[in-house]
């Protein structure tokens, strides 16, 4: 079964480069990946034996990281990127949380472009973190524009139109902002878990981040915790993993 899953991921990867159409990922690859990732997330959830088996398969961990950091950003339609990114991150987090051998595989892994897996993941974090910051600024600018226009509207009807347009734009951008924040936060969680029993790689990870600091990772994780609490979706298992990661990152942030 594990080899079947690996073969499915490999086939999907080949499908990206060979059969991709103008609208994004081919339907076959999308269907295969969706089913495969969901099955793998289920069987690796709090299952150390399954995690060890999958991690021991040739290139499996690298294939998953490549999917997240290269194939999804470059070959998926915008509407699909968030769902597949969170599924892939869920699988990667499951794989490393109980299994230090898988953490060590990630730490030493090299991608096909001779980039380390750590660097590829850090760049993915920075990309989503920067996108969330840009959207924050855009929302703030829209609010400022609305406030200035509010002073010169000529009628109640015009005012109502401006309110509606501003709200619709802000809601749309807030959704995209939350997607980038969620993905960045889960990558931050991944890094926090990687450091368990591997604190010696902390400086290596810092080298790949802005200002060589874990602060952006900690900030995103805290935002994720607050959001999940707000929507009442923070389970005790997730909470423990997140606080463990936050504690690790904060401790290793100290000089």
From TrEMBL:
Database matches in Gene3D superfamilies: Leucine-rich Repeat Variant
Pfam families, alphabetized: WAPL
WAPL domain ranges (all copies): 1-231
PROSITE patterns recorded: WAPL (PS51271)
Superkingdom, taxonomy of origin: Eukaryota
Family to which this protein belongs: Belongs to the WAPL family.
Protein name: WAPL domain-containing protein
